[in-house]
Amino acid sequence: MATENTQIYHERQKLQFCLLHSLNNLFQQKDAFTRASLNEIAEKLVIDDPNKVTWTPLSVLFKPHHNAITGNYDINVLMAALEGKGKSVIWHDRRNGASLINLDASEDTLMGIVLNLSARKYGGLWKSRHWVTLKRIDGVWYNLDSDLEAPETFKDNEEVREFLDYMIGHGGEVLLVMNDKQ
Fewest Cβ atoms closer than 10 Å to its Cβ: which of 65, 110, 174, 181? Predict the structure, then answer.
């Protein structure tokens, strides 16, 4: 169980770097990933793509897997980043709801949960997606959303499931991040 002495690492939102913050929150480490490392992953994905996109002047800013200025990284960058750290990702079948997610799995097995949520900002004028990490630390689940002032504690697994079911019901995607067996 978490104690008063449990230190929770929580990066706050800057521009559209929510994937960067989400990954660092997942690993509980500042600079587990950096903007430069995620940009490098995104560029490698472009080079490795057999169906390369034709270059246009806008390609300088709007790259296939991220925006060069604001971030806004896509799922491909997330998958490659986690695989590079020896993790695997299981895309949860949203038709099943959260009841089939084993939230009691050992922390050695289930590293955490990453959500990709629909986000509306500026009075609904701006629609995009937002990356959020849920992580169990010392037996307690936390919402490490970079838009929050501070991490939020879930009181139990049932509350985590209710939260996940709500997010799934509103278009959220659930990705289980697994520690691969070495």
Answer: 181
Could you give the CA distance from residue 33 to residue 46 in angstroms, rounded to a whole number? 19
pLDDT tens by residue, 48-63: 555 555 555 444 444 5
- The 10s digit of each residue's pLDDT in 109-127 is 999 999 998 776 555 555 6
- The two structure tokens encoding residue 94: 């949203």
Q: Reply yes or no on whether 130 is catalytic.
A: yes
Tokens of 46: 């472009």
pTM of the model: 0.80
Residue 65 annotated in active site: no
Please identify which of the residues 10, 18, 21, 65 carries the catalytic annotation.
18
Q: How many C-beta atoms lie closer than 10 Å to residue 137's C-beta?
A: 18
Instruction: Put residue 162 in one of left, alpha, beta given phi > 0 → left and psi -120 to 50 → alpha.
Output: alpha
Give the whole-angstrom CA distance, residue 17 versus residue 111: 21
At residue 71, what are phi and psi to the nearest 5 degrees? 100, -105
Q: Which is catalytic among the residues 21, 65, 66, 130?
A: 130
- The mean pLDDT of the chain is 81
- Token reading at 18: 């929510």
What is the rounded CA–CA span in Å between residue 108 and residue 119?
31
